[in-house]
């Protein structure tokens, strides 16, 4: 299709400009490397977040830059005879003289072909870049230390297959853009080590919760009352197992004509609950508004001196903006679930990861993991030594005769610690609170705890049967579970 001559000419055109030479060098080095790497990556053969970063965030933009330089340079190329290809006079001359036109056409064909090819390559590379920077591997592992707590909790949660960006970016451009913008700020913060520890909740930058969650959870499919059971182990010799059974009145938002009722009443379409908080964590709620079409708003407010009682540092702090309550105001930890030390051990004991028949293991493990350690590496060694010392003093035969049982207990205890505590990021037990309950007067009791009232003295109900019916609380072999078990068996 092309004569040797036209290749030569293009060679001259490029070498006629320094900018083009730089561009051409970039392209000829990066193109084959990128092509081979992307091929292997698309086959799933590469699983290293740093390699992905190099490929998609460094090399792809460089290749694009190379191509731009190549063309910009040849436009300004000034050389011998025909090399002024892209000046207006030259083009005029070429197009008006029939003999020359054929050669110009060949040259144009070549340029168009190579441009299409490069656009294709850059297109694929940019698409892969977008995919890569949106993947949990990039978000969770690239800034490894910074994201380790959230990434670990995410991996152990019911949402471990939901990509970070589905909750943190969303699909509408508006939110995507805002988040990209803050993303650049965050990269800068990581580079300069100027981010807060522990990382703050990104409530202002998260996409509105309802849209995010409703991609998968439909409010009109909401659940009547549901039975929740929980096992605990007491810190006694037998690690006595006790059970709690609660019937939660989850109810429904009134979508598609169902009456709103129960806990999900807050997300009904016909009425709204709005609130203001005095602090970033939204622990101190100073005002609650219940807004219903055709009715007068009901406004509950917290007395200023109460505000100070709840948080002595608040000192009459300005209340924040009015926020509409959504899923995340209760389900604030759908995926970054950090357990309490007790709960973390109860789960391991329940699942038999820590053998529950090892005497006093709940009590000793709890004491060991609750200590403060400088790093996870130190914790691993110290927890193991702690248990070793205690058991070899108090139950020497047991660990001599059954070393594997003891080893399992140690591993399970270390796991319970490592899944929830990250000293490097100042994530200790209880740093991130879960609002789905009312531990320490937090969660639901931020509003349902008699703190706010209307002018006429009405408060938000805190009746123990408003949200649930307690069928058994920390009972050994609860009757209700026994009788349910009989029905199932
Ligand atoms: C199911 C939705 C969902 C997914 C998936 C998700 N997050 Fe989050 N994330 C949240 C919510 C909600 C919060 C806010 C918690 C709060 O306000 O208390 C949050 C908070 C955070 C925070 C702030 C610190 C904190 O714990 O409050 C970081 C950092 C974070 N997420 C990183 C990630 C990374 C990295 C991934 C992927 C590996 C990810 N998230 C996946 C919903 C999600
Ligand atoms: C991409 C889909 C997807 C998105 C987005 C999503 N979820 Fe889920 N969610 C799931 C799936 C799937 C499960 C069931 C997991 C299982 O049973 O192991 C689940 C489970 C749950 C559960 C039950 C957890 C449990 O302990 O059994 C709750 C509560 C929940 N999601 C709330 C939320 C909230 C709140 C959001 C928004 C921040 C959200 N989800 C966003 C898919 C999603
Ligand atoms: C007023 C607080 C509150 C709000 C607001 C709220 N939820 Fe819930 N939701 C709960 C509680 C409490 C439960 C009971 C389950 C539990 O304890 O885990 C629950 C249960 C669920 C479950 C069932 C989990 C299971 O075990 O099957 C899903 C799914 C869910 N919520 C999703 C949502 C979504 C999506 C939204 C927003 C449209 C939302 N919730 C808004 C408090 C709330
Ligand atoms: C931001 C404030 C706020 C928070 C947080 C909050 N609620 Fe409410 N809730 C209200 C208001 C206001 C009402 C209506 C007043 C009333 O019923 O006393 C209400 C009513 C309810 C009702 C009665 C609904 C009906 O059928 O009429 C239930 C059940 C309920 N809340 C459960 C919960 C649970 C469970 C949580 C925690 C997971 C929670 N709420 C957290 C403000 C809140
Ligand atoms: C506004 C709603 C609401 C009110 C009012 C309420 N609770 Fe709860 N309660 C919850 C939620 C939500 C949970 C968490 C369920 C879970 O862990 O998933 C819970 C859990 C519990 C548990 C089990 C804790 C555990 O982990 O074993 C007990 C016990 C309990 N509540 C007792 C009470 C008592 C006593 C009252 C009356 C003073 C009360 N609750 C009032 C919403 C409420």
What labels would you give this structure?
489 residues; alpha+beta; 5-stranded antiparallel beta sheet; 3-stranded antiparallel beta sheet; 18 helices; 8 strands; extended; binds heme C
Question: How does this structure look, described?
Answer:
This protein has 489 residues and is α+β, with helices and mostly antiparallel strands. Among the domains are: 4-133, no CATH class; 341-419, no CATH class. Helix content is 49%, strand content 10%. The strands form two sheets. A five-stranded antiparallel beta sheet has the order 6-3-4-5-7. Strands 1-2-8 form a three-stranded antiparallel beta sheet. Helix 3 (49-75) crosses helix 6 (136-142), helix 12 (341-350) packs across helix 16 (403-418) and helix 14 packs antiparallel against helix 16. One heme C (HEC) is lined by residues 158-159, 162, 166-167, 209, 212-213, 215-217, 327-328, 331, 334.
In brief, what are we looking at here?
This protein is α+β, with helices and mostly antiparallel strands and 489 residues long. It has helices spanning 4-15, 18-42, 49-75, 88-96, 98-133, 136-142, 144-155, 164-168, 173-191, 209-214, 304-310, 341-350, 361-370, 376-394, 396-401, 403-418, 464-467, 479-488; strands at residues 226-233, 241-248, 271-277, 285-292, 298-302, 323-324, 452-453, 468-475. Among the domains are: 4-133, no CATH class; 341-419, no CATH class.
């Amino acid at each position: 299709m092309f004569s040797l001559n036209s290749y030569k000419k293009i060679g001259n055109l490029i070498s006629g400009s320094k900018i083009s030479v730089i561009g051409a060098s970039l392209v000829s080095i990066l193109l084959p490397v990128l092509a081979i790497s992307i091929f292997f990556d698309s086959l799933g053969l590469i699983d290293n977040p740093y390699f992905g970063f190099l490929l998609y965030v460094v090399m792809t933009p460089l290749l694009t830059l190379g191509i731009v330089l190549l063309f910009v340079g040849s436009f300004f190329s000034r050389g011998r005879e025909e090399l002024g290809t892209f000046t207006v006079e030259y083009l005029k001359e070429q197009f008006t003289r029939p003999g020359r036109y054929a050669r110009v056409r060949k040259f144009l064909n070549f340029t168009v072909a190579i441009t299409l090819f490069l656009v294709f390559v850059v297109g694929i590379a940019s698409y892969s870049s977008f995919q890569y920077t949106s993947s949990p591997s990039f978000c969770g592992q690239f800034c490894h230390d910074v994201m380790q707590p959230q990434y670990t909790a995410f991996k152990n949660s019911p949402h471990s297959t939901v990509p970070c960006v589905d909750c943190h970016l969303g699909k509408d451009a508006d939110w995507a853009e805002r988040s990209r913008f803050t993303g650049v700020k965050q990269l800068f913060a990581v580079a300069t080590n100027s981010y807060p520890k522990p990382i703050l909740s990104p409530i202002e930058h998260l996409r509105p919760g309802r849209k995010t969650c409703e991609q998968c959870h439909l409010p009109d499919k909401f659940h009547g009352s549901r039975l929740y059971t929980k096992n605990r182990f007491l810190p006694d010799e037998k690690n006595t197992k006790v059970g709690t059974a609660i019937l939660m009145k989850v109810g429904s938002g009134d979508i598609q004509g169902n009456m709103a009722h129960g806990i999900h009443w807050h997300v009904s379409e016909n009425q709204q609950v709005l609130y203001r908080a005095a602090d970033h964590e939204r622990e101190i709620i100073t005002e609650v508004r219940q807004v219903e079409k055709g009715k007068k708003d009901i406004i509950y407010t917290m007395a200023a001196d109460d505000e100070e009682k709840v948080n002595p540092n608040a000192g009459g702090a300005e209340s924040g903006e009015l926020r509409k309550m959504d899923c995340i105001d209760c389900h604030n930890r759908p995926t970054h679930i950090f357990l309490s030390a007790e709960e973390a051990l109860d789960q391991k004991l329940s699942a038999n990861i820590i053998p529950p028949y090892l005497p006093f293991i709940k009590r000793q493990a709890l004491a060991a993991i609750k200590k403060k350690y400088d790093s996870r590496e130190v914790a691993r060694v110290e927890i193991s030594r702690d248990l070793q010392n205690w058991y070899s003093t108090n139950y020497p035969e047991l660990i001599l005769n059954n070393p594997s049982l003891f080893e399992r207990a140690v591993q399970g205890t270390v796991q319970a610690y490592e899944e929830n505590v990250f000293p490097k990021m100042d994530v200790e037990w209880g740093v991130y609170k879960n609002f789905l309950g009312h531990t320490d007067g937090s969660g639901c009791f931020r509003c349902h705890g008699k703190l706010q009232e209307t002018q006429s003295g009405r408060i938000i109900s805190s009746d123990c049967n408003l949200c649930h019916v307690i069928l058994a609380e920390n009972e050994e072999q609860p009757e209700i579970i026994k009788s349910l078990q009989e029905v199932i068996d």
